[in-house]
Amino acid sequence: MVSLCLTIGACAMPDPPMSLDNPPAGSTNTSSKPSSNPSSSGKKADTPSVSYDSLIASTTARDNTPVCPVPDAPGTQTAGNDLAVIDYSHVSDGYIMVNYLGSNGKVKLQITGPNKVTYTYNIQNGYAAFPITSGDGSYEISVCENIEGTKYAVAYKTSLSFSGISEFGPYLHPNQYVNYNSGNKVVTLAANLAATCNDDLEVVTAVYNYIIGHITYDYNKADTVKSGYISNVDEILKSNTGICLDYSSVMTSMLRSQSIPTRLEVGYAGEVYHAWISVYIKEVGWLNGIIQFNGKEWSLVDPTFGASTDEKKLKSYIGDGSNYATKYIY
């Protein structure tokens, strides 16, 4: 029997937070635009340009060779029906693959983990990777087809128990939000920025400085972006402009390709719906401050605010990180 998911059902709308610069219903803000206008030039004069046409070999003991794992669906562990297949063969690496087999033009995937947070994605025909970020435990996974308006029918639903999920696996692989491969310019750029770096912290610093120096906030895009938007990281690199999801997707792709575990986080910066990143450094752990590294902590690295807000105002706003409330992790 086909069950229906109405507006308040299991596959309920509003649409997933794909357009991260538009706050969800009930928010008092209309967009997560930075509080000060960015430079109109697209670049800052004090940040040197780095080529991304060919790889530069490392000049230090740190290996800068890009690492770009390719998610796949070998079919050793699957669940599904004639409308959808869930391949969880690599769940220990922190992701599952989902393939929609039907003909509906508007399909949603929902994943609810042991922390009861529900992630909603747009999906289509063909396998795509989706992160499993809530740790070991029971997951409910639903594939829902649009009926009309905000009404969806459950095409397939299952409950799966996962264990042995790698702590860093979800944050070292590509997925729908962080979509990169070995052929991307951002991967080459990251390697070239890392060529003179002695450790991961220096790579994070180099990538961060490049992003805030070369990409400016796109106010027009923020006003017109539609739900379901996903960043094309090389297009953002070429245009030198983007919204908060673009900044975070580009930087996350670059750091993951340098084997630095990186989380793309979505939630609230104050009352604004926003996206930022956190990184893991072996000697430090997950970084929990921002901008200024005090020798122990440095996290919630938010390249949008870094690019468009003066340093004094930025540090005053972010403080100890309490203005940030994480809702989703990709």
Q: How would you portray this structure in words?
A:
This protein has 330 residues and is of the alpha+beta class. Helix content is 20%, strand content 26%. The protein folds into two domains: 31-66 and 176-329, C8orf32 fold (Roll), CATH 3.10.620; 78-166, Immunoglobulins (Immunoglobulin-like, Sandwich), CATH 2.60.40. It is built from seven helices and 15 strands. The strands form four sheets. A five-stranded antiparallel beta sheet has the order 1-9-8-5-6, with no helix packed on it. The chain has a four-stranded antiparallel beta sheet with strand order 2-3-4-7, with no helix packed on it. Strands 14-13-12-15 form a four-stranded antiparallel beta sheet. A hairpin with a 2-residue loop joins strand 12 and strand 13 (272-281). Helix 4 crosses helix 5. The longest helix has 15 residues, at 200-214.
Structural class: alpha+beta
CATH T-level fold name of the largest domain:
C8orf32 fold
Instruction: Tell me which CATH architecture of the largest domain applies here.
Output: Roll
Read across the widest sheet, the strand sequence of neighbours is 1-9-8-5-6
Question: From the alpha-carbon coordinates, what is the Rg to the nearest angstrom?
Answer: 20 Å
Count the DSSP helices.
7
Query: How far apart are the first and last residues' alpha carbons, in Å?
Result: 33 Å
Low-pLDDT windows of residues? 1-45, 288-301
β-strand number: 15
Q: State which percent range the strand residues make up.
A: 25-35%
Q: For the residues shown, what is the average pLDDT?
A: 78
Q: How helix-rich are the residues, as a percent range?
A: 10-25%
Largest sheet: 5 strands, antiparallel
